[in-house]
Amino acid sequence: MRAVGFDAFGAPQVLHPIDLRDPVPAAGEVLVRVMAAGVAPVDVMARSGLLTALYAGQQPPFVPGMEVAGTVEALGSGVGGELSVGDPVAAFVNFTGAHGGYSELISLPAESVVRAPAGLSTAEAATTVLNPLTAHNALDALDLPAGSTLLVTGAAGAVGGCLIQLAAHEGLQVIAQAASRDEELVRALGAGGFVPREADLAQAVRAQLPDGVDAVVDPANLGVEATGAVRDDGQYAALRPSATGADRGIIVHGLNVRQRSADHAAIVSLRDLFDQGVLTTRLGGVIPVRDATRAHELLEAGGLRGRIVLDLTAF
Fold this sequence. Notes:
By secondary structure, the protein is of the alpha/beta class. It contains 9 helices and 15 strands.
């Protein structure tokens, strides 16, 4: 099978086509023919060398890609339930080594694979796992009661948008931080309050809530700037490695969505929220997999308002 990966860490140009053996599904696994793969910040981190520990003791090539959509190619023994060969699916990929989503075929634990949400294109379906699960994982960690106040940084981004929709669905009061041009977007997603990105974050939040918010989820990785908007004894959720320490009694959650890679119940529940219209897709563009370098360049340039997806049918 064909895939796109890298042999050495570096700039987007290290990505190149590679040939790998076709995987065979083991017991409890689903073989997916990948038609679309999401391009996420974690892919850039892996390619650029920020996740070298992930590849300790392994030999290249390395293949990134943490979420895919396609069809069921084969089922390993013991896999039953709702999936049959040919079914459209979406899946979480706990990538490591040459096992990654930028591949024509990938064998995955059945717990990581679900029927794709109804009515979506394959490219759209490839955006329905990683971002929502990341947001869900953060909200689970915070465990805020309905009516609590939540600040979301980078709220117009792919993860930020999911956070707003899920938090609003859970009855939280959301203040969104984003560029001024995105105020209409984040309010449409469910944010009740807004802070422009160019404003002093803590000062602007406390102008609306003098004691600060109950918690913040920080997709923009602002760290101390974000914790300044949190009340004493509140909570801060970091989605990337962060040196932000706790003060004023603030509880810091360092989160890694990989821990939920086989949380089938969570992945199914999020799929159902897409079916119900509670969650909506945020497709930032579709790029042929042969141009994966360009996809990584666009992601690194910033300013995207949705997830870029690689078309795996376009080698």
